[in-house]
Amino acid sequence: MSQTIEFPHLSKDESAEGILATWFVKSGEQVKAKQVIAEVMVDKVSLDVEAPIDGTITLLVQEEASVRQGTPIARID
User: Fold this and answer.
1) What share of the chain in percent tops pLDDT 90?
2) What is the 3-state secondary structure (H, E, C) of 27-70?
3) Which of 60, 53, 49 is nearest to 76 (CA)?
4) Which tens digit of pLDDT belongs to each residue from 37-74?
5) CATH, domain range 3-76
């Protein structure tokens, strides 16, 4: 089963963008559910993003990229 991970909604403005500050994993790595995989920032607020399921991660967005809330940032297969 595959699952897409989206940039979290941290602002009430649906068109708001944030920064994917840091990946803590690399594409192709095995991850476990609840493992912190990334740090994102919106309006000077940072948040850790956790893997929702176990599997192999594929990163879709590079570090330091500006990303709109709700945009897919990774996939776990």
Assistant:
1) 83
2) CCCEECCCCEEEEEEECCEEEEEECCCCEEEEECCCCCCEEECC
3) 53
4) 999 998 888 999 999 999 999 999 999 999 999 999 99
5) 2.40.50.100
- Find where tokens 């649906």 sit: 14
Q: Which two tokens stand for residue 49?
A: 């993003």
Kindly state the tokens that stand for 62: 């590079």
Residue among 71, 42, 36 nearest 57 (CA): 36
Counting beta carbons within 10 angstroms of the beta carbon of residue 40, is it exposed (0 to 12), middle (13 to 18) or buried (19 or more)? buried
Average pLDDT for 5-9: 93
The token pair at 70 is 């709700």
- Give the 3-state secondary structure of residue 25: coil
Higher-confidence position of 32 and 9: 32
